[in-house]
Amino acid sequence: MKTINDIFAESLDIPLADVTDDLSYQAIAQWDSTAHMVLIGAIENHYDIMMDTDDIIDMSSVAKAKKIIKKYQQ
Amino acid sequence: MKNAFWQTNHLAAQEQENTALIMIDNILLENTPIEEKVSYSQLNHLVTQAKQKIRTQLTIYSSKKQLLMIVAQYSINSIVYYLAALQLKQVVWWVDKDLSTEKQQHLCSYYQVNLLINNGHIIRIGYFEHTIHPDLALLMTTSGSTGSPTLVRLSYENLRSNCHSICHALTLQSNDSVITTLPFHYSFGLSILNTHLNQGATIVLNADGVLTREFWQKIKRYNIRCLYGVPYVFDMLLRLGFARLSLHSLRFLAVAGGKLNHKKVTRVNDWCLAEQKQFFLMYGQTEATARIAILDPNQVKNKPYSIGKAILGGKLWINKKQGSQQGELCYLGNNVMMGTANNTDMLSLPASHNILRTGDLAVCDNEGDFQIVARLKRFIKIVGKRINLDDVEIFFNDNHLSAACCGEDDLIVCYILNASLKDKTPKQLKTILCRYLQIHSSYAQIVVLDTFPYLSSGKINYSFLLQREKNELG
Which residues of chain A have a CB within 8 Å of the CB of B212? Predict the structure, then answer.
């Protein structure tokens, strides 16, 4: 089963070991707006959800992403 | 002759205390954001000071025209030194702030750059005595990410003329505040800066992308009226959902830098019609300073695939092949570049001619609006960034790999000859390629082949290769 960390690693083109909770948007070159769009698409596909405008903008770290995904799964 | 946007003394006299530039830091982190505002009269003052500093550096070594590289930062100082250099009639070359040090140094030594200016800090990096044509004002890179040394040479008249044509088409006025969404080393991004300065408008210097909270806070705080983007920016806006965004203050949206799919054009335009905003579909090339054609916003509903008519002072026509309605789109105007440059010596050349063969295949409808149907030149755009396919092949060759590269917008396919692959895997090559081009891996494909298909002319059959990959991808 794919984890959220796997999705981050694949979408951002980075090693799984680099995916930590405090990794944040624009903190690394790989997590730019293009990768953010890829990431949103991958999360939506995997969890079969459709994220709101605010959640797309708020998803600025791995920790926040986990929180947001949880919200949709409730 | 009308004034030019870099003549800050005229702007200061006209706009006085109106705000020219706003720089803001950390809205989220600070309760009281650090905000720096520069009025038009202050801007003129800052430019005068900057001129003094640059002049000191220049005259010590030579009285001849010199080459200044400015790092394209979203900062007040970058703009101040840009305007100062134009006033001093020195040549400006904006460079991508994210370009690797290695590529930047290569470009500097290749073209014998004299001064490197980064956020107001001047560093003397070369003493070469250039022979530069007096009309030459600006150099622009067309393929930024490959660090290709081919440059577009633009004159003072190119800059002035294109600026006025754009201001006219968009009816820009001093209350048309704008937020930066594109870097200044990119001709579209620079044209936004030039035109809004020319009209005495407020420019909010912003480095945040449209997917950030900070960006939308700035839009709201400064009642932004003009928003520009490449097609990819519109993809993101559509994904965020126009209805949910705070775009109340907006007067218009404008797209350029590639073709936005006509279905998406209609979606954006439907929102604009409902909200009484305008949507400008624009077409241009760095070779024509920036802008070539703009579609009348009232026509977007009927012609979402069109680029409209030539801007004021320009002329568009199609070089038709016999028996065909389509042909290469050609343009004539005062904004057509002096020419390109591949080495330092070419900076001395005068303007070649003012006709530009765009390299795009187009058709024209009976109302005189043009539509691009295909591209003739060997380049593609990925997320709005131009990538020369031949440069990519050279990159592979430099790494001892035989490659044939093809693609379309937002997809590059590189075929590698099996015999040259040695111990490398396609996955490793993809990582190397994407790092080199600074693109996301989802836009690239590496395919290993035993032989390349050739046309009877002896050239690689690129259209066959592209079709092959598109069939693979389904």
Answer: 25-26, 57, 60
Residues of chain B neighbouring A29 (CB-CB closer than 8 A): 98, 438
Q: Do B244 and A52 touch (CB under 8 A)?
A: yes
Can you say how many angstroms the Cα of residue B266 is from the centroid of all Cα atoms in its chain? 24
Quote the number of domains for chain A: 1
- What percentage of chain B has pLDDT greater than the value 70? 97
Q: Which of B34-43, B343-352, B381-390 has the lowest mean pLDDT?
A: B381-390
Alpha carbon separation from B395 to B141, B402, B418, B425, B432 (Å, rounded)? 17, 10, 17, 17, 10
Helices (H), ranges, B170-261: 187-198, 213-221, 231-240
Which of chain A's residues have a Cβ under 8 Å away from the Cβ of B211? 25, 33, 36-37, 56-57
The CATH number for A52's domain is: 1.10.1200.10
Q: Which of A32, A4, B233, A3 is nearest to A12 (CA)?
A: A32
Q: What is the ipTM of this complex?
A: 0.86
Do B200 and B319 reside in the same domain of the chain?
A: yes
pLDDT at B445: 93
pLDDT at B28 over 70: no
pLDDT band at B433 (very low <50, low <70, confident <90, very high): very high
Higher pLDDT pick, A43 / B375: A43
Domain end position, chosen among B314, B344, B375: B375
What per-residue confidence (pLDDT) applies to B473? 77
CB contact under 8 A, B245 and A40: no
pLDDT average, residue stretch B295-320: 97
Q: Which residue of chain B is at minimal alpha-carbon distance from A37?
A: B236
A29:B98 CB<8 A: yes
Mean pLDDT for the stretch of residues B378-406: 90
Residue B50 within a domain: yes
Chain centre to alpha carbon of residue B309: 20
Nearest CA in chain B to A10: B441
**What mean pLDDT comes out for the span B144-151?**
71
Same domain flag for B337 and B397: no
Contact list, B430 vs chain A (CB under 8 Å): none
Residue of B240, B431, B434 lying closest to A53 (CB–CB):
B240
Largest CA distance in chain B: 69
Both B287 and B389 in a single domain? Answer: no
Does residue B80 register a pLDDT over 60? yes
Whether B440 has its CB under 8 Å from any CB of chain A: the answer is: yes
Q: What share of chain B is helix, strand, coil (3-state, %, to 5)?
A: 35, 25, 35
- How many domains does chain B fold into? 2
* Count of C-beta atoms within a 10 Å radius of residue B173: 13
Assign residue B27 the CATH number of its domain: 3.40.50.12780
